Amino acid sequence: MADLPCRQVVEVITSYLEGSLGWRERRRFEKHLRGCDACSRYLEQMRATLDVLGTVPVDTLSPEAQSTLLEAFRDLRH
What we know:
Oligomer: single chain
Order of helices and strands: HHHH
Strand content: under 5%
Distance between the termini: 23 Å
């Protein structure tokens, strides 16, 4: 859908799953999903991955691990 490109869906899927998208963005996201089988499947895959892997609370990571992860993902959005 031209209103929200697939690339942008991929960029905000974590925010959607965490419930941190604003209502407008969430509405655009869900509208896109209704018309895009590929992004709907991707969302299902992400949910399945989270169900299997669970979560890692930030406070359980050592400072070194936090630093390494932040460095690794720092330029991900660019």
